[in-house]
Amino acid sequence: MNVQLSVFKGKNIRREWDGKKEKWYFSVIDIISVLTEQPNFKKAQSYWTTLKNRLKHEGSESITKCDQLKMQASV
């Protein structure tokens, strides 16, 4: 996979290109950090974990379609 950065609202979002599947994968935590204006990575990660658990509890199927990939840490 090829790790690159994308810029959204002036903030870096980590993304990886999977050439075999011809798909981009984006860091959900980075996106949440920008949308919630939360500069602290751990707090953005906690927000995602809480949201994911609530959605699972409500029966949302969209969470089951989220692939989890290990990404390089942002610089």
Descriptive report:
There is one protein chain. The chain has 75 residues and is of the alpha+beta class. The chain has one domain. Helix content is 33%, strand content 25%. The chain has two helices and three strands, in the order E-E-E-H-H. A three-stranded antiparallel sheet has the order 1-2-3. A hairpin with a 4-residue loop joins strand 2 and strand 3 (23-26). The longest helix is centred in the middle third of the chain and has 17 residues, at 41-57. The two termini are 18 Å apart.
Instruction: Provide a count of the helices.
Output: 2
Question: Hey, roughly how much beta strand do the residues contain?
Answer: 25-35%
Q: Level of helix content?
A: 25-40%
Sheet with most strands: 3 strands, antiparallel
Judging from the principal axes of the Cα atoms, what is the shape? flat
